[in-house]
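Record 1 of the preview.
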Amino acid sequence: MTEVMNVVTRAIIGIRPDLGETGTAITRESALFYAADPAQPVLGLDSMEALELISVLEKEFGVQLADTDIRISDLRTVGDVVEAMSGTA
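->
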């Protein structure tokens, strides 16, 4: 699962290089878009970046998310994405 986390992290930084440049920690707990809990780290992806992330991960893992049981609306944190992609690998 560490390898999947590495792939997801690289994909996020590829889409949002500013996160890597500023040294923003990307953890399993990091919210992709926003968080109700102010203590939770937030990456702040927008909808276009989310679509790009899905596209990159589909290519990386050789899957089409539409052909799986993965519901994109359930992918709220980096950990959610790692778990989903671990099931496809």
